[in-house]
Amino acid sequence: MQFCKTVLLWSCLVLVQRGSCQPYLRLRPSPSDNLPVKDIIEHPDPEHDPKEQDLDDRTLRKKLGSNFDPSYMSVVAPVQVNLSIQDPLHRLKVPGSLPSDLKKLDLSETPYGGRLKMGKKARRKFLQWLWAYTYCPVVYTWKDLGGRFWPRYIKEGNCFAEKSCSFPEGMYCKPVKSVTKTFLRWYCQGWSRQKYCTWIPIQYPIISECKCSC
């Protein structure tokens, strides 16, 4: 990781001196191997679906209790809105303060053994620029889990990066943190007249933070 940061830092310094370190990133989903959760292959038999009497909103809200989180779940189909900025020209508007690992970077030593003089103001602006172009926002979209989940709709996070998020290329936006939400899952066991179905609580992980890393 330290090697990646060093390569990223000095490549940007060289490009800044040449006046050619310009934003050109485009974005697409690039999830890890485990997140976001892959679509579940459902049994096509409608006999495995909950009936109308099994979908009473008041009963299900009571069963889910305090686990119902309207920020991440919805009973009805929400308006599909992209909840993160995807235009790379707006990446300079990064929320929050500089990460501690960026604040600790030593900008004085060059790869060739010389010393680089940089004032406090220039250092601050450079670090803010570096933070803006290595920052990886979580882009949320609403996903339909199907009628065998309640609530049916979940706000799922993705890490977006069509190209590398570093200069030179080699680092990518990857999930580093997730939150777990509890949903109800319609579960059937047995068969024919011996079949028994009920709502059971299940844990569903959601990406909550992405980071530019090797």
From TrEMBL:
GO terms for biological process: cartilage development; dorsal/ventral pattern formation; negative regulation of BMP signaling pathway; negative regulation of cell differentiation; osteoblast differentiation. InterPro entries: Cystine-knot_cytokine (IPR029034), Noggin (IPR008717). Transmembrane segments: none annotated. Coiled coil: none annotated. Residues 35-54 are annotated as: Disordered. Its main location: secreted. It is found in: Secreted. Gene3D superfamilies: Cystine-knot cytokines (2.10.90.10), Helix hairpin bin (1.10.287.520). It comes from the Eukaryota. Residues 39-54 have a biased composition (Basic and acidic residues). Residues 1-21 form the signal peptide. It holds the Pfam family Noggin. Disulfide bonds join 136-173, 159-210, 165-212, 188-197. GO terms for cellular component: extracellular space. Keywords: Chondrogenesis, Developmental protein, Differentiation, Disulfide bond, Secreted, Signal. Belongs to the noggin family. Homodimer. This is Noggin. It comes from Microcaecilia unicolor. The gene is LOC115476730.
